[in-house]
Amino acid sequence: MPRVFVQGKPVASYFPHAPEARRGSVRRITETGEAVLHKPCRDVTEFGPELAALIDDMFLTMYVADGAGLAANQVGVDLSLFVYDCPDDDGVRHVGHIVNPVLEPLDPAGRRLLDDGEGCLSVPGAVMDVPRPDRAVVRGLDRDGNALVIEGTGYFARCLAHETDHVNGQVYMDRLSLRERRQALRQVADRRDEVLARRAANEAELRR
Hints:
With 208 residues, this protein is of the alpha+beta class. 31% of the residues lie in helices and 26% in strands. It has helices at residues 20-23, 49-64, 154-167, 178-207, and strands at 4-6, 9-11, 69-71, 81-87, 93-103, 113-119, 127-133, 135-141, 147-153. Strands 1, 2, 3, 4, 5, 8 and 9 form a seven-stranded mixed β-sheet that branches. Strands 6-7 form a two-stranded antiparallel ribbon. A hairpin with a 5-residue loop joins strand 8 (135-141) and strand 9 (147-153). The protein starts with a strand and ends with a helix. 37% of the residues are buried.
């Protein structure tokens, strides 16, 4: 079985980081409470160099923050797209981007819910159990406007659902009870400085 899928297609080998990151610049990651994270993003209607440059920046920003996925509103841009570099539960790596993503509804009778720890780069330091289906299918476009379908299972399905939530104006804390949200915010208060310091160190290392 192939060990890497890029844009949903198997490849024989791939780079440690997506090549887009080499062209990118690091952007500030927005945090929960900022308006751009809490409203649905606008569909992308223009495909060209500006969109490509945004994707490059998003890949690099995701890697600096040790993330598995990153949506455009997490770098302050209210456009509907996300990037990802994420393993599934079988250790297969999935790398790519998707524009105007739509998560397909799954047959409730045929899906299994996984309750597992989930974090978010916009909720720095918090990890909470969030139930998600163990399979996800997302339809959208690539950076050139070509149709794209990405399927994932296990942890990668969680990533696809999490990032699609972002473009719809939801953070994972919206899926928690009030008590759980308070617990997550306590974790942020305890760990945020450490998380941001690690990101700054990663960025400094890149610049060397």
